[in-house]
Write a structure and sequence with these properties.
Pfam families: PBDC1. This is Polysaccharide biosynthesis domain containing 1. InterPro entries: PBDC1-like_dom_sf (IPR023139), PBDC1_metazoa/fungi (IPR008476), Polysacc_synth_dom (IPR021148). The chain is mainly alpha-helical. The chain contains six helices and two strands; from the N terminus they run H-H-H-H-E-E-H-H. Strands 1-2 form a two-stranded antiparallel sheet. Helix 1 crosses helix 6 and helix 2 crosses helix 5. The chain is globular and about 35 Å long.
């Protein structure tokens, strides 16, 4: 149960971060550039805006992901620990939009989403909901 709580807390912190800071300026790891370039070499055509369970969990997908993930063993701390990943980057972490993935998959996909401007929707929605002026309560 402890790992589930840790994964949930990680998801909540990350979503709050991309909601409050322009995602294109976020640096998730010291190896963001390497993770992104290696990810895009391995998954050139993967549309990270909306993912499916099959793209991450099918036997074929696991065969494609395994070599990518294993490159980061010893380089990215806890690279194979479980974390929560949003399937549709324009939506929050809710049950039907969340999949369990490895940390390196999370980093690869979220770095791509940030750099490719796909997480901007979440940021713009949250910042447009904030009041434009402070209202005093007496």
């Amino acid at each position: 149960a402890m790992w589930a709580m840790k994964a949930y807390n990680h998801a909540e912190v990350y979503f709050n971060l991309i909601s409050s800071v322009d995602p294109k300026f976020l640096k998730l790891t010291k190896l963001d550039d390497k993770i992104y370039s290696t990810f895009r070499e391995s998954f050139k055509d993967l549309d990270v805006k909306v993912l499916t369970h099959d793209q991450l969990k099918s036997d074929t997908a696991k065969e494609r992901w395994r070599p990518f993930c294993n490159q980061f063993e010893g380089l990215v701390e806890d690279f194979n620990f479980g974390t929560l990943l949003r399937l549709d980057c324009e939506k929050d972490y809710v049950e039907d939009n969340t999949v369990f993935a490895t940390r390196i998959q999370f980093f690869a996909i979220e770095i791509a989403r940030n750099r490719e401007g796909l997480n901007n929707t979440v940021n713009h929605l949250r910042t447009s909901e904030e009041p434009s002026s402070i209202t005093r309560v007496s």
